[in-house]
Amino acid sequence: MKNFTFKINENNYGVKIVSHEDNVIELEVNGTSYSVKMKEEVKTIKTPTLVRKPSIKSIEPINVKSTASVEKIIAPIPGVIMSIHVKVGDTIKVGDVVLVLEAMKMENSITSEKSGVVSAIHVAVGQQVLQSEVMIELE
């Protein structure tokens, strides 16, 4: 398998690893065969692979009516929409929870900073959003 040369106290040693199974290694040192049993099995470290579901395409906003005074609820941080607690036409007050956004394995309740009627919802459950992306519009 592999050959190594060691120098110990000015003496050279040629080491050849013949086989390695579980915690037993067969090797030759300067032509003499040895069977070495390790105390513990060598653990192989695997690098984890990040697996993500493909992001859902953003949906077209549902507009009820358009007015000049539109308030927008934007994503404060990037994340995934876990649930939406309002629908188009709902009247909401300041402090009402409008949706839940998961970011870094933490669920964040997004509340309304203004009162109004929901005029458009630009996100869907499971959708990934970026920071400052418009999620909900109020009139």
TrEMBL record:
Highest taxon listed in the record's lineage: Bacteria
**UniProt cross-references to Gene3D superfamilies, sorted A to Z:** 2.40.50.100
Pfam families in the cross-refs: Biotin_lipoyl
Residues forming the Lipoyl-binding domain are 61-139
User: Where does the record place a coiled coil?
Assistant: none
> Keywords assigned by UniProt?
Biotin
- Enumerate the PANTHER family for this protein: OXALOACETATE DECARBOXYLASE ALPHA CHAIN (PTHR45266)
What name appears for this protein in its UniProt entry? Biotin/lipoyl-containing protein
